[in-house]
Write a structure and sequence with these properties.
The chain is of the alpha+beta class. The chain is built from 4 helices and 14 strands. The strands form 4 sheets. Strands 1-3-10-11-2 form a 5-stranded antiparallel β-sheet.
C-alpha cells in the first residue's frame, strides 16, 4: 500500500486539511471570485420559471432515522439564509457564501454526510438536499452552472425519486461548493421553504424566459461488473421554445456509471442487465 495522505492519518489531520482548504477558497474568492449575490427581497418576482418539491425524510436501509429527522432542522435553517435571494445579471450564487458555515452554535444538528464515498454523519449533515433542489431549478433554465460536484456512487435506492438519477450535487463547507452565474438579462430569485414534510423551491424571474426544459433518463439499468453492481443511465435535457412548443435541441448532460454502495438485494431484478 502507498503512503497515507496527511488528511488520512487521523481525525485531527483531517480537520487541519479541511481548514486549509477553507482558507484557500476564501483567498481565491477574495481575488478572483467575481460579484456574489447578496440582495434579498421579501416580494416575489412575478414569473415562476420552475417549481419543485422533494420529500425530506425517507426511511433508508441502514441509516439512523434520527439523522434524517435532524436533516429537517438543518434544511429549515438553510432556508432562512437562502429564501428570497436575488441574483442580478452577471452575479454568482454561491451555496456556502449564502448559507454560511453550519455549526452547532447556530442550531445545526448531526445529520447524514458522505465522506470519501462512505456514509457518515456530521453537524449540518443533509444540506446536499438543499443544494440538489437549487441545482434542479437551475437545470430547468439557461443559467450557467460554474461549480458542481457529482456524487460518484449510487448511495440509495430509487424509492420515491422524482428526478433523473445523478442530477444532484455534493457540497461540503466550503471547498465543495455549488455555484451558478446569472448569464441572463433579467434578475432571478430563489425561494425555498418547508411544508408538509417536503422541501419546496421556486426559481423566479422578472420576465418570462424564451425556453423551457425537460430532463429525462434513457437506458436506465443496473449492470454487474466483476463482483460489483453499477447504476447505468444517460440523462438528457430537451430545450423547448416556449412560444411554439418545438424542441430546439436535445443535450446529453450526464452519462451515469455509478457503483451501487447499498444492499444489492434492494436492486430490482427486472432492471439488471
Amino acid at each position: 500500500m502507498g503512503r497515507k495522505l496527511f488528511c488520512q492519518i487521523n481525525p485531527t489531520c483531517y480537520r487541519i486539511s479541511t481548514e486549509k482548504e477553507i482558507l484557500k477558497r476564501k483567498c481565491k474568492d477574495l481575488f478572483t471570485g467575481g460579484r456574489f449575490a447578496k440582495e434579498y427581497r421579501e416580494s416575489q418576482l412575478p414569473v415562476i420559471v420552475k417549481s419543485h418539491s422533494s420529500v425530506m425524510v425517507r426511511r433508508l436501509n441502514g441509516v439512523d432515522l434520527r439523522l434524517q429527522e435532524n436533516k429537517v432542522t438543518n434544511i429549515e435553517l438553510a432556508c432562512e439564509k437562502i429564501n428570497g435571494i436575488v441574483v442580478h445579471p452577471g452575479e454568482v450564487f454561491s451555496f456556502w457564501r449564502t448559507v454560511g458555515r453550519p455549526t452547532a452554535r447556530k442550531g445545526y444538528k448531526e445529520g447524514l454526510n458522505i465522506r470519501q464515498g462512505k456514509l457518515s454523519s456530521g453537524i449540518g449533515g443533509g444540506l446536499c438536499q438543499m443544494a440538489n433542489m437549487i441545482h434542479w431549478l437551475v437545470l430547468n433554465s439557461s443559467l450557467k452552472v460554474t461549480e458542481l460536484h457529482h456524487h460518484s456512487d449510487a448511495l440509495f435506492p430509487d424509492e420515491r425519486r422524482r428526478v433523473p438519477f445523478g442530477t444532484g450535487t455534493s457540497v461540503c463547507y466550503n471547498n465543495r461548493d455549488y455555484r451558478f452565474r446569472n448569464n441572463l438579462d433579467t434578475d432571478v430569485q430563489i425561494l425555498v421553504w418547508c411544508e408538509n414534510g417536503e422541501l419546496c423551491g421556486e426559481l423566479r424571474a422578472i420576465n418570462e424566459l424564451p425556453y423551457r426544459y425537460r430532463l429525462f433518463e434513457e437506458d436506465s439499468h443496473y449492470h454487474k461488473e466483476g463482483d460489483k453492481y453499477y447504476r447505468i443511465s444517460k440523462v438528457y435535457r430537451s430545450v423547448i421554445d416556449r412560444k411554439s412548443g418545438e424542441e430546439i435541441r436535445k443535450e446529453l448532460i450526464l452519462d451515469n456509471h455509478s457503483e451501487v454502495v447499498y444492499d444489492y438485494s434492494l436492486i430490482p431484478e427486472e432492471e439488471i442487465r
